[in-house]
Design brief:
F-box protein 33; ubl conjugation pathway; about 15% strand; globular; alpha/beta; about 40% helix; two-stranded parallel sheet; about 525 residues; F-box-like_dom_sf
């Protein structure tokens, strides 16, 4: 019998340590302790593949993952849409405390809640009826005071958190509280009650200027409809080096008193690399157009202009550019213009719509003054080479009295618009009569190139011949024919409240202006 004896051999140096480490790794795998034991770098890498909501859910797994959630590389940009509500404040404070000091792109939108279901803002003249009218007015006043107070606190929270952020490259603020500004009574009445000594407004303005002064990489500055944040002296806080490299600037505010403007032609001379600009139309003067044509300025690519009846009432159209000044478009062959007009009279629009404007988008929003067929016809003749977006909104109360643009005309101006403007890709209409046969003609003329055709159901009308035909359902025939013309399923907008361009015109314009400027 043969015996085989196993004689232990001496361990080489370090073998005991490697064996212990191997057993530790085996034990770790056996315990399945992956989530809590992963290194921070790997967790951050995992987070980088997840959307923001999924990151938040994943961070709930353990404290270690929560610590990695707000790693700066994960949040280069932050886009926040807030209701002006006290419930939003703690969440905003937490988020801005975590990200405000390093975020590179920050976009914040404030929107006032619609406390006034079925009514307008204070002073809108609505009759509540009976002896409860005074009580109702007092309740509305109290609610709007609360909204304003919360709005100021939320704005302060955002500005305080980024005051020392020198990495900020894009900064955009939007405040849709225009419902409070009806009849221009907000600043003098409600704001004075919330901030009687003006300390908070002054603090907000100083913080905004401090942010501009501390910026080292800012290329995009956009502020729209924000209540008294930007002043005529705010831009002077920007250093020359930052102003010289700024690529986008938008300053839209209808609450500036008197003839004051947020930027002058002299100030604009510093912004030599500006590619896109958005201003109140009354602030865009002939002198500004001249500055932008100077040889030391790069060619302007996008120009968005807001024409508001409040501005037209308090400011003059006498200084606006004429056709000679619009030679700006000859220097920059890629220049495109976007105009939004709030309740502007036809005679004023005739002054504004110069033939040499390279108009690509126009948005009419009316509460009192309706757009005439002559204006639509003028637009289709002058801007047939460029026009791609045409929006026509009329917020009238009496739905039985929609104006008919084709009255006393051989051809419907909207059909002519579709025929002449071969680049038309978006057409949205509410509050104007659109005849069914004309809608079919529009769809056939533009075909699949008309990507968006939004017409509200109450705006569509049928002539007597269509209604008299018992063999054809006029509504079904309209849907079928328009769908065939567009090459895609189509139906009328049944719920006007679902149409954001109607319910939130300011926000719609601001977002469209942003994408319009980014699309260079």
């Amino acid at each position: 019998m043969l015996l085989f004896l196993s004689v232990p051999q001496p361990r080489p140096p370090g073998a005991r340590t490697r064996a212990r480490a191997s057993r530790s790794r085996m034990a770790l795998c056996g315990q399945a302790a992956g989530a809590a034991s992963l290194p921070s770098e790997l967790i951050v890498h995992i987070f980088s593949f997840l959307s923001a909501p999924d990151r938040l859910r994943a961070s709930a797994s353990c404290s270690h993952w929560r610590e990695c959630l707000f790693y700066p590389a994960l949040w280069p940009q932050l886009r926040i849409s807030l209701r002006v509500s006290p419930a939003e404040q703690p969440r905003l404070e937490f988020l801005m405390r975590k990200c405000g000091w390093f975020v590179r792109e920050l976009r914040v939108e404030f929107a006032a809640e619609n406390y006034l279901s079925g009514g307008g803002g204070p002073g809108d003249g609505a009759d509540t009826g009976g002896g409860g009218e005074e009580v109702e007015a007092l309740q509305l006043s109290t609610r709007w005071l609360e909204v304003l107070h919360t709005y100021l606190e939320l704005v302060l929270c955002v500005l305080v958190s980024i005051r020392n952020n020198r990495n900020l490259q894009k900064f955009s603020l939007f405040g849709d509280i225009s419902v409070l500004q009806q009849q221009g009574s907000l600043s003098n009445t409600y704001l004075s009650k919330v901030d009687p000594d003006g300390k908070k407004i002054k603090q907000i303005q100083q913080l905004f200027e401090e942010i501009l002064s501390n910026s080292r990489q800012l290329r995009w500055l956009s502020c729209g409809f924000m209540l008294e944040i930007v002043t005529p002296t705010s831009l002077s806080s920007l250093s020359n080096s930052i102003a010289n490299t700024m690529e986008h600037l938008s300053l839209l505010d209808n609450n500036i008193p008197g003839n004051s403007t947020l930027i002058t032609a002299v100030e604009l001379e510093r912004f030599v690399n500006l590619c896109s600009l958005a201003l109140d139309f009354c602030d865009f003067t002939a002198e500004m157009a001249r500055v932008l044509t100077d040889s030391n300025h790069v060619p302007l690519q996008r120009l968005s202009l807001l024409v508001h009846n409040v501005s037209v009432m308090h400011k003059s159209l006498d200084n606006m550019p004429n056709d000679e000044h619009w030679a700006l478009s000859r220097k920059s062959t890629g220049l495109r213009v976007y105009i939004m007009a709030f309740d502007i009279k036809s005679e004023d629009m005739l002054k504004i719509l110069k033939p040499s404007i390279p108009l690509e988008r126009i948005h009419f929003d009316s509460y009192i003054t309706c757009v005439s067929g002559a204006i639509v016809d003028l637009i289709s003749r002058q801007y047939d080479k460029f026009l791609s977006h045409f929006i026509l909104m009329n917020d009238v109360i009496d739905t039985s009295g929609f104006p008919d643009l084709s009255d006393n005309r051989n051809e419907d101006p909207l059909v002519l618009l579709a025929w002449r403007c071969t680049k038309l890709s978006l057409l949205a209409i509410h509050g104007y009569t659109v005849w069914a046969h004309n809608l079919i003609a529009i769809a056939r003329l533009r075909g699949p190139d008309l990507k968006v055709l939004e017409v509200t159901e109450e705006s569509i009308d049928f002539d007597q011949g269509e209604l008299a035909d018992q063999d054809v359902d006029p509504v079904h025939n309209l849907i079928e024919q328009v769908s065939l013309g567009l090459g895609q399923p189509w139906h009328a907008v049944m719920d006007i409240e679902s149409l954001s361009v109607f319910t939130e015109p300011n926000r719609h314009f601001y977002r469209e202006m942003q994408s319009f400027s980014e699309g260079i």
